[in-house]
Structure formats: structure tokens, C-alpha cells
Amino acid sequence: MSKGATPETITSLWDRLGTGTGTVLLFVVLSLAAWSFLALNLHQTNFSGGAEGLGFLFDAAIPPDMSVLEVGLRGLVETLYIAYLGTLIGVTLSLPVSLLASRNLFPWYVNVPARWSLAGLRVLPSILWAIIFVILVGTGPPAGVLAISLYTIGFVGKLEYEAFEGLDNEPMEAVGSLGASRFQVLRFVVLPQAVNSVISQAVFMFEYNVRHAAAIGIVGAGGIGYYIIGYLDFFAYDRVIVLLGIVFVVVVVTDELSYRFRSFFTGNAGTSFGK
Amino acid sequence: MTAPSPPPIRCRDLSVGYDGVPVLENLSVTVEEATTVAIVGRSGCGKSTLLKTLAGILEPLGGEATVLGTTFPQTPPRGTLGYIPQSLGLVMRGTVLQNVLHGTLSDLGTVRSFLGRFPRDAEQEARAAIEDVGLAGTEQSRVTELSGGQRRRVAIARAFVQRPRVLLADEMLSELDEETARSIVNCLCELQEGTGMAVVVVEHNRDIARAMSDQVLHLENGGIQERIEPTSTNHPDTQQNDV
User: Fold this and answer.
1) Up-side HSE of residue A74: CA atoms within 13 Å toward CB?
2) Taking every annotated instance into account, which residue ranges of this chain make up the domain ABC transmembrane type-1 (chain A) (predicted)?
């Protein structure tokens, strides 16, 4: 079983809030917040020009220029392709690495390097990977697919090894002691038990990557972001707002579809508070 | 003249436990071919820990446990050891047939393993094992659809299908009705006669333990409190009813 914050530990922390330890904890949290606020000079921020800027933006963007809709939809389709391919490649490649990274499946000298590799891929956000690949392979969708794939390996790989570590060890021990090899235990016990969780994470990652595939276009890695930055350069806010609207609708739809799809695989149809 | 083969299980001054803390110490037990040793004792006395150590899942804390000529961290040749854990260790998302087929994995090659394709004879043996434990007709049922007793029988079929030389069973007969338990014991006896299998069972019910075994080990206070040989003519336990 993986160690972490269980409902019991959360409840016990909540119960402690009224005690001396809780008061000290609250004091530390608020002190750090105050320190951060002062360190960033947020108290000196001048918001007075904000309203004026908002007015300018509103005038420039409204009414939206709907003639850009066709270009936006073309960019959107490209974004979806990038997100889909990046997710598929990333999830496929993350599986063997995450198996190696699981503490309950492999010894430390295997899982520590595997974990470090995954952590290394997560160090850079997908937009920075996109900048690197734009330099390496040039502007366009290939850089986007490579950036999304690499970040997906690091991100979903972590979710996967945590899922593997949360599995019941008894079936692995039982089948292993019957003479199955390590590969057979992974193939016939670990993956069938974790398959729903892996699919759910892949769907979540696709939803996440749709948003990021839209953003990485800003640095030239293809997709709708490429058009957004192009129009921004020419201050064509009336066109930018149409493209942002398309991204917003797609993110909301993907989010809803992803939730329903994941609920189907995890058997969690919804949360029922207060029952 | 050939030397007699060593016993399938031999423990000398064996200490077992978790995280360096011994639960049982200085156990010396020998299980000969075609014999059954039953382990009884209160909950938490170390019965399952001993079985896990013999199965190679836990490292002995001291002494030596030799199973089929190998000692930890070496493992017995693939397919020679059958283990039924207390919690059964079934793949709950799998079907009955898939779970029983897991008992034949030691004979499955790498390519077939990768593809998940079992040979026809392995499937026939698995179906026969399922029939032996009285679950014919449930081959394609998911384990989650079965009762507790039926699940236990799936775990038994999975251990029986490979005809092991050593069987380690943790509360194999719990949750089973008397008739099913009897048929499982009969099945075990037939297998033992045919293969000379050595059996170690953890059993809560002392009557069942006496009835099905050649030796009963009563564990208590971190060691063997009592050794009972039910088949011995001068032992009062011989008077117990069979199950």
C-alpha cells in the first residue's frame, strides 16, 4: 500500500486545528503567506490602469471577427491531433518505465533510476519542451507531438507507478510463488488489475494535453496557439477572442467527456456529499 | 543402490517474522513426500508467516528452510510449488479460467506470455481442475461474481492444476460447506497418491486438521507447543471423527 494522506490522517489534522499544534500550524501557514506577499511587492501593485486597459481590450475585441472561424477550426483540429498522438505515444512509452519505477515490483536499484528519469521529464513543462523541439526539428506540429509525448511520459508515468504500488500484493505473491516469471506476473496480474486506472489516467492526460497543445502553439509548435500568437502580434484582438472562445468550448467539452469516460472505467459515477 | 531423496521440506532452527521481529523461533520440522502436516494455533501465532516463508515470499530471520532442495533466496524449480494464500490472491477482474490458467504459467514461453495465448492442453488441464473442485460451468464467470467459498475453490484449482510437488495452503477449507470440503480433501489425497506431493496446511478447525494430516503442529508462544500424530495408534486423537 502506498503511504500518503488517508481520510483518517486528514480527519486527524482537521481535529488538531483547535489544539496548540493546530494554532502553531495555522500561524506558520499565514506567516509564509504574508512573507511571500511582501517579497513579491504585491502591496505596491498599481491596479488603477487595469480598468483602462480592460476598456481598451473590450473595444478592440468586440465585436469578434467571425471570419477567422474557419482558420480557428483548422487550428483546433491540428491541436487535437497533436494532443491525441502525444498522449498515445506518451502513455505507451510511460508504461514500461512506470512498471520499473514501482517499488513493489522491482528492487531499488531499478526503480530509483526509473523514478529519476520520470522526474527529469517532468522538470520542464510542455511549453519549454516545445521550445527545445522547435529548435531541434523546426516549427510545426512535429515539435508539438514530441513535446507533449515527453511531458506525458513523465507526468502519467508517475500516476501509473503510484497506481501499481497501490495494488494488492497478494495476487502477485501467489502467482509468483506458483512459478510465474516476473514478466508473467506483470503481464497476467499487475496490468489486468491496473488496466482501468491506466485508461482513466490516459483519458485525463488527453484532456490535460488538449489545453497544453493549444498553449504550445504560441512558441511555434503547431495547433491553434500558433494562430493566436500570430494575431496577437498584429493586435487583432477581435480575431484572438474568437480563437480563445473555440479553445474554451473545446476544453469544457473535453473535460466533461473525460469525466464521463473515466467514471465508466473507475466505476465512480459521481460524488455524493451528505449521504 | 541410490541414496534416499531428501524430504521436500526441511526446517532447522527456523525463525520467521516481519521487519526483523520474530514471530516464531527455532522451529525444526520435516515434511516427507506424500505426507500432510497441518498447522494449528491461535490467530496471530505465526501460521501464515511460516507458510509465506516456506513459499519464499518472506526471508527467514534465522535458521534454514529447505524446500525441494533450495534455500532462500533461491526458489524451487518453476511449477513445483503450489501456494494458496489466506486471502486467495486471485486476480479479481479475471475469469475463473484465466485465474486457474495462472497455475500453468511456469510452462508458458515468453512469446505466448506476451500474447496471452495458452496452449490447448493447458486450457484442458485448467478446465479439468475447475471441474475437480466442483466449479464446472463457471469457467467464463468473473471472480467478483462468485461467493467466498467458490473463490476459494478457484484458488485451490489454480494450485492443483500444475500438480506441484509441494503444496502450501493457508486455511484452504474455510468458507466451504462440509460436502465441498470433503471433495476437496479427496481430490488432494488423489493428487498426493499420484504425485507424492508434500502438503502443509494451516487450519483453524482442529478436527479437520487431525482428519486430513499425518502430523499436526500446534503453534503457541513463538514455537511448536505440541506435535500430534493422529494416525499413531496410541494417540487419543485417533479417536476423532473423520471429516
Assistant:
1) 7
2) 76-259
The domains of chain B, with CATH numbers, are 1-76+165-243 (3.40.50.300), 89-163 (no CATH)
* Neighbouring residues of A205: CB distance < 8 A, sequence distance ≥ 6: A87, A90, A91, A152, A155, A156
A chain contacts of residue B168, beta-carbon cutoff 8 Å: 177
Alpha carbons A145 and A221: distance in angstroms, whole number: 8
What's the predicted TM-score (pTM) here?
A: 0.74
Closest partner residue to B94 (CB to CB) among A168, A176, A192 is A192
A177 in contact with chain B, both atoms CB, cutoff 8 A: yes
Nearest residue, CB atoms, A188 vs list B83, B89, B105: B105
Q: What's the alpha-carbon Rg for chain B, to the nearest Å?
A: 18
CATH number of the domain that A229 lies in? 1.10.3720.10
The C-alpha of B167 sits at a distance from chain A's nearest C-alpha, in angstroms, of: 10
Domain count, chain A: 1
pLDDT of residue B236: 39
Is A214 within a domain? yes
CA of B114: which chain A residue's CA is closest?
A187
Of B52, B88, B91, the CB nearest to A189: B91
- Whether ipTM > 0.85 holds is no
